[in-house]
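Hi R.,

Here's the chain you asked about this morning:
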Amino acid sequence: MIGVFDSGLGGLTILKAIIKELPKYDYVYLGDNARVPYGARSSKIIYQYSYEGVDYLFRKGARLVILACNTASANALRKLQEEYLPKNYPERRILGVIRPSVESAIEKSFNTRVGVIGTEATVNSGIFPKEFLKLKPDFKIYQEACPLLVPIIEAGEIDWSGLDLILDKYLANLKRKDLGALILGCTHYSLIKNKIQKHIGKGVRLVAEDEIVPLKLKEYLLRHPEIEENLGKQGRRSFLITAESQRFEELAKTFWGDYLDFQLVDLADF
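And the predicted structure, written out as tokens:
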């Protein structure tokens, strides 16, 4: 099966899009809602939480895990790939969402000026400028941390009038940079991408991960038949959370479009 790990609900937007593109596979989603948000935590803590989530999914039988959380991808992906996998599951894979976003921004931007919005931990990691430097060193990257957006979205307040004022504040500096593209560097932001587009301006092309990751995953599986042939193909879906919450289940409907049957799990217990 394919596992999708996120700090909360944002990854549901990616999983829904993946299933639409690749419906035949078995999927398991794990949202660590007991500890959301990750964005203001230290790199060490983010790695520990990501390790626990990924390890749980592998023990459940996942052959491939997608870190749908940008904060986890920025602060934990490389170490998980280089240290954890070789020692524990050398035949399995962990993929992130940052490199696909960078590649898409390069393709979509009409100039060499790209903006990034994300959590504090994602922005502070410097991962986006590093990835652009590898692929397109002539690009100029402008980042803005948006610490209030995830809590607001997780609280279900996407129609709150104050959100517009907050977006105005966060995007003010970026609007002056003549951007060709803006990366929504958090899976949660896909839920408010229309609002973001309105505030940043119609001329700036948005790079939203729910539109990118499914196609990149499809390409990856075509390139790696040794992974693809070991994936379950019964169309099974399961949704796991780390804390029971009626509000969480109601909010999941906003991300998914329908109510989901969540199973409560303890990452330390298997």
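The first strand starts at residue 2 and ends at 6.

Let me know if you need anything else.
M.
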